[in-house]
Structures are given as structure tokens and as C-alpha cells.
Amino acid sequence: MPSITYQSRLSILYLGFGVIGAVLSGSIAYLMARAEWVAEEGTSQTTMLWLGYGLLACFTGFSGICVAMVLAAKRLVIETDAVYINRPLLFHRRRIPLDQIARISFGDYEIKSAYRMQDFTVYKGKKTSLHLKGGRVAHFNTFEIGNYYTSVAHLQNERLRSPVKLDYVSLRHQDQDWQGYGWLLFMVVITGGVVISVFG
Description:
Strand order of the largest sheet: 1-2-3-4
Strand content: 25-35%
Distance between the termini: 56 Å
Shape: elongated
Largest sheet: 4 strands, antiparallel
Oligomer: single chain
Helix content: 40-55%
């Protein structure tokens, strides 16, 4: 009978960016929806309305994407014979038998943004790719999975059938990476200011 050996937690960073993105974009969309669009002299009212509705649609759409991102949050459940990629908020889970994993590869994972034609890195972490025997590939990374390094160590242990004693102190230290939380705090402050100005 298969038994659960480890369960990851939901990523606070992933959920935080999703919620903040939805609230910030939704607040701006709400503000725009309530605003009176008045065309400047030399600009037709129709053009102004199309521009306004276009921006409103963009912010509303981005807010919807962020909500979908939150709902699609992942967690790993590792059993003795399979790994599950669960999306608990959608009541969905994908089962991957360990004997169907041909190999596991690792790489860098980055989230970049741009400002004034210059790229900068918002987040830099690691990703894992599970290459299945049928040719499909499943991915997960440090941004979307809480306790990523501990989860990967347990997955490797179960897949190789080698009960290696894990160094939980080292794994916990790796999992407690605060990268990206500075940007999240910055976004919380900005979003708080926008929400207070809109609803205050």
C-alpha cells in the first residue's frame, strides 16, 4: 500500500504575488471604471473612450490572470510509488508514477521585468524537470513550490529506492531563501497605497 513520505507546502511568494497582482490591477480597473472620461481639446470623445475602455480591459484581464494564477497554485505530494502535482484550490491532481520518470534534470529559473528598455531580474531560483518515458515533461520550480529543496530530496530518495539519510538542517536552510520577498514587500506597500486612495 503506497504511503505518503513528504508533502510540500504552498509557496507564500507565489500566492503573495498573485494576490497582490489581482488586488492592484483590480483596484486600478475599479478606479478607471468609476472615472469620467473627458477628451482634451483636439481629441475626439470616441478616441478617448476607446483608449479608456482598452486600458480598463487590460487591467481587468491582468487581474483575472492573477486570480487564475492563485487558483493554480501547486504543491507536491510524494509517495513511495508516485509523485503528485496537486492544485488544491482547483481540486485537481496529476499522478506521475516514479517508474515512468526516465530522468530528472535541473536548471535555473528566472523572472525578469523591464524598465526604460533595461531588463532586471525580479527573482532567480531553480527548476526541476521530470522527463517521462512517453516523451512528456513536467516542471516545477522554487517560486511556485514551498520547501522545494526538501521536496526534491525526498523525490530523489523514493525514485532511486535509496533511503539516504537527509540533512534536514541544510535543506531547511536552502528552503528559507528570502529572495523575491523584498519585491513582494514593495508591491504590498504600493498596493496598500492604491487601495487606500481608491476605497479610503
